[in-house]
Design goal:
332 residues; alpha/beta; Rossmann fold; 2 domains; 11 helices; 18% strand; binds alpha-L-arabinofuranose
Length: 332
């Protein structure tokens, strides 16, 4: 070997090494800064498919992931918290970049979310809040104001009956879910301002059509004929079931018994357009796409998002129902 060329070779290889290291470190930095460059992997622990709204949320979660180049690992918990805990642990083991969790109930999350935090995996709550003294366990919660939803429904009813005496029955959602106590609370707050409104019965219909129908049948049997003036259901699917029960009892839903529910799914707009329902409070189904955008921004800027990202709660009545049905029927 020509000894004179050795120092030059060394310098060259140092340079190559230097460039290589810079490229490698740059790549690492890019990976840390915005995982979107390599494509994020997100785990989503979904509650199940109890309602049309839930199905829409799942559909938009898949679509939104695809549009953003995100790999979505989806797990359906079939309404069971233990399945959600297993799913979150499995996402942690797989090393996902983030976890979306729609918590079926509000309590019992601290341990598993602590494990996600220890693994540096941000968790975003979707559509339901959790009870925890340690809000650092999740990055943010994308939900509606579930107390306000109840208030919107109650205010609408108070305005609709205009001082007339009104016996109301309530069909609640899944026991133990954060939003169920809130939807009840908000509704009760709103009707408390009207002494003519009386909440006479309340029972869980578990957010499903079949159970909503069964509960309404029970109410109609238990109450004197013609004495129920209105039904408030915590979601539209239970209301669709209740409407069926009212029809089978020989009454006209929307006229003999007023209806107000929550979600804004296509079938309730159809029922409103047909004169069988009176009002719904919309719950935005695009919670996951909103969460993806929060996550991408967070990975880029490192600025923590607000602890609660609130989605709107808009009231719809029959005047726009046909148009809303046409607009939504294929989206869900
Ligand atoms: O958490 C949102 C609620 O869950 C929806 O209002 C209901 O339809 C769903 O099952």
């Amino acid at each position: 070997m020509d000894m004179k060329t050795l120092p030059r070779r060394r310098t060259l290889s140092r340079r190559i090494l230097g460039i290589g290291a810079a490229v490698f470190l740059g790549g690492l930095a890019a990976g840390c800064d915005s995982g979107d460059k390599k494509g994020l992997t997100v785990g989503f622990s979904q509650i199940g498919s109890e309602s049309g709204w839930r199905a829409a949320e799942t559909k938009l979660a898949r679509q939104g992931a695809e549009q953003r180049g995100i790999t979505l690992k989806f797990s359906d918990a079939q309404q069971r918290q233990e399945n959600q805990i297993k799913a979150v642990r499995s996402f942690i083991a797989q090393g996902v970049d983030a976890i979306l969790l729609a918590p079926v109930v509000s309590s019992g999350w601290d341990e598993v979310l602590g494990e996600a935090k220890a693994a540096n995996i941000p968790v975003i709550l979707l559509d339901r809040q959790i009870d925890t003294p340690n809000v650092d366990l999740y990055l943010t919660a994308v939900t509606s104001d579930t107390i306000e939803e109840g208030r919107v429904a109650g205010r609408w009813l108070a305005g609709k009956v205009q001082g007339r005496d009104c016996r109301i029955v309530e069909i609640q959602g899944t026991v133990g879910a954060s939003l169920v106590a809130n939807r009840k609370k908000g509704f009760e707050e709103a009707i408390a301002t009207a002494p003519n409104l009386h909440l006479v019965r309340t029972q869980s219909g578990e957010f499903t059509r079949a159970k909503g129908k069964e509960v309404m049948e029970g109410f109609l049997k238990a109450e004197a004929p013609g004495s129920i003036c209105a039904v408030y259901a915590h979601n539209d699917d239970m209301m669709i079931g209740a409407i069926q029960a009212i029809k089978e009892a020989g009454l006209k839903p929307g006229t003999d018994i007023l209806t107000v529910s929550i979600d804004g799914v296509p079938d309730i707009f159809k029922a409103m357009a047909d004169g069988d329902a009176n009002a719904t409070v919309e719950l935005a189904p695009d919670m996951a796409p909103r969460a993806y955008d929060i996550l991408l921004a967070y990975r880029k800027d490192h600025a923590p998002p607000p602890k609660w990202v609130q989605t709107p709660s808009k009231l719809y009545e029959p005047d726009t129902a046909a148009a809303e049905y046409a607009r939504r029927k294929d989206l869900y």
